[in-house]
Amino acid sequence: MKNSLIVKRLDRLIPYRVEDIFIRFQPDLKAEGSIYGASWHWSNNLSKRWTSRMTYTYMQGRQNIAGEGASRLPTDQRHTFAAVFQDKMPSLPNSRTHLRFLFGSGYPFTPLYARPDSSGATKILAEGNRNSFRHPYYRRVDLGMSYDWTISLRVAAKGSFEIFNLFDFRNRLSYAAFVDVTGRAWYAPVNLSRRLFNARVNLQFPGK
After folding, report:
1. What number of other Cβ atoms are within 10 A of residue 15's Cβ?
2. How far apart are CA 201 and CA 174, in angstroms?
């Protein structure tokens, strides 16, 4: 078991905004901030076959921007948990199976709202308080299997098959916002990838 404590002062911080998958740095703004948290790591063999690793991390990140005040850092995820269980199957001595669990608090984001434009005739989208809202929490379960075999004295192979996001969770990436003809703001969620299947075979040619 390993534990660690994190305390960091950020005196030369460059603020940035996240727009969908784009990062917009704002070097003209002066800011400072801080990060503190703790992490816990545990690794053990539950049996001769089962190997397990678990990690939990708590982190809080804050920034203070001149002219705006205090807000969360865009990377302020707070809680993250990961666990991996790996099994060696006796009936197939060259095979391995693993199961991975991932969970994390939602990242902060800056909300958008509808406000009148300079003419007052129509409404446009404007940013609210920086990083004042949070996305829903992130969760994922992956399942994978691999097998090693020898084709000949000079050729070895390793095959693997994985299912990412086994339970097809809808994890949030961002929101697409727009204003309708009545001047009301609407939000459409933009999600990360759903369930994915991956298969591969690696060939190795060891020297004599």
Report:
1. 22
2. 35
Mean pLDDT score across all residues of the chain: 88
Stretch 45-54: mean pLDDT? 78
Give, in degrees to the nearest 5, the angle at Cα 128 between 123 and 132.
Answer: 150
Give buried/exposed letters for 53-78 (b at 16+ CB in 10 A, else e). Answer: ebeebebebbbebeeeeebbbbebbb
Q: Which residue is it, tokens 């990436």?
A: 173
Q: Where are the domains of the chain?
A: 2-204
CATH architecture of 2-204: Beta Barrel (2.40)
122 residue type, one letter = T
Q: What is the pLDDT of residues 29-40, one digit of tens each?
A: 999 999 999 999
Q: What is the pTM of this model?
A: 0.78
